[in-house]
Design a protein that fits this description.
Number of strands: 7
Number of domains: 1
Family: Belongs to the ligand-gated ion channel (TC 1.A.9) family.
Distance between the termini: 30 Å
InterPro entries: Neur_chan_lig-bd, Neur_chan_lig-bd_sf, Neur_channel, Neurotransmitter_ion_chnl_CS
Protein name: Glycine receptor subunit alpha-4-like
Pfam family, one: Neur_chan_LBD
CATH superfamily: Neurotransmitter-gated ion-channel ligand-binding domain
Radius of gyration: 19 Å
CATH topology: Acetylcholine Binding Protein, Chain: A
Order of helices and strands: EHEEEHEEE
Largest sheet: 7 strands, mixed
Keywords: Ion channel, Ion transport, Membrane, Transport
Length: 156
């Protein structure tokens, strides 16, 4: 269960966690082993694919999870800290990108559709929603009886 950061104790806890030795420019374990980041993609909508542009457009949620020991904290209630839009910019996030991206946009209706949760053991969950158009090399030799397979790649 997660509690949004609206009450003073949670906001104070986040300030304590981020104001210590924390520097978002550096990845966790900077001089140690690599950070293991798990990622998942939930496709919310598949809008279109075009043979002329050789591309397709999707709205998706990209969720990533990793451990940042610098964000560990102790809490009697085992409370999860939740940061929304502005607060997310204060934490290191893996530099992921889509190499086949043609265009993309983050959803910002009312607020940015991005969320970051910090668990007491330093585990971080980041979720962002956006619409992206990706290129897809289509093979149209059997058109209109063809079938296409388009890959979605994420790199760091």
């Amino acid at each position: 269960m997660s509690t949004p950061v609206t009450d003073t104790p949670s906001k104070k806890r986040i300030d304590e966690v981020l104001r210590g030795n924390y520097d978002k420019k550096y990845r966790p374990n900077m001089h140690g082993p690599p950070v293991i980041v798990t990622a998942s993609v939930l496709i919310n909508s598949f809008y279109s694919s075009t043979d002329t542009g050789m591309d397709y457009t999707v709205t998706l949620f990209l969720r990533t999870r990793w451990v940042d020991p610098r964000l560990e904290y102790t809490d009697d209630k085992n409370q999860t800290l939740t940061l929304h839009s502005d607060g997310v910019n204060e934490v290191w996030v893996p530099p992921l990108y889509f190499p086949d991206e043609k265009s993309g946009q983050f959803h910002k209706l009312t607020t940015e559709n991005v969320l970051l949760r910090i668990y007491p053991d330093g585990t971080v969950l980041h979720s962002a929603r956006f619409t992206i158009t990706l290129s897809c090399m289509m093979h149209l030799e059997r058109y209109p009886m063809d079938e296409q397979t388009c890959n979605m790649e994420i790199e760091s």
